[in-house]
Amino acid sequence: MFPNTITLGTVTLTKIREQDYSSEYLFRNDTISWSMKIRHSRTKETATKKSQDRHNVEFTYTIFATSTFEEFTSKVYVVWDFRPNRGNTDSAALTAMLNAFIDNPANITSLVGWES
Q1: Which of 8, 23, 56, 57 is buried most deeply by CB count within 10 Å?
Q2: What is the pLDDT along the chain (116 residues), one digit of tens a residue?
Q3: What range does the domain containing 54 cover?
Q4: Do 66 and 33 fall into the same domain?
Q5: Domain count for the chain
Q6: What pLDDT sits at residue 88?
Q7: What is the pTM of this model?
Q8: Is 82 exposed, middle or buried (0-12, 13-18, 19+ CB in 10 A)?
Q9: Contact (CB, 8 A) for 57 and 77
Q10: Does residue 28 share a domain with residue 40?
């Protein structure tokens, strides 16, 4: 189980909700808020497809409106989708690849510049 607070950089998020295989964390002050949601689910097995475990982490950043600027929100999330017996094995390799990609500022510039 994740703790009641999670510190990421200079922001400490506090757990505000936990139920049904999900948690929500929040940091909020007068000008901004950071939200983190952790969710888990499992797809149903069918005749042609095995069930999958899905793990999702979502970050939302909001800057509140002022007299001169409108409020805006940005969001990023990642989903791990694995067969139940493959999660620990595959997640480390795939997460390392994702981290290597997003840790390169040129890749992020290209990504938000609509390059593919």
Answers
A1: 23
A2: 899 999 999 999 999 999 999 999 999 999 999 999 999 999 888 898 888 899 999 999 999 999 999 999 999 999 988 887 776 777 888 889 999 999 999 999 999 999 99
A3: 5-85
A4: yes
A5: 2
A6: 74
A7: 0.85
A8: middle
A9: yes
A10: yes
pLDDT at 87: 63
Decide: 16 and 37 in contact? Cβ < 8 Å: no
Residue 62 and residue 78: Cα distance in Å, rounded?
18
Amino acid at 5: T
The CATH number assigned to the domain holding 36 equals 2.40.160.220
Residue labelled with tokens 């901004």: 32
One DSSP character per residue, 86-108 reads: THHHHHHHHHHHHHHHHT-HHHH
Burial (CB count <10 Å: 0-12, 13-18, 19+), residue 13:
buried
Task: Report CA Rg, the chain.
Answer: 17
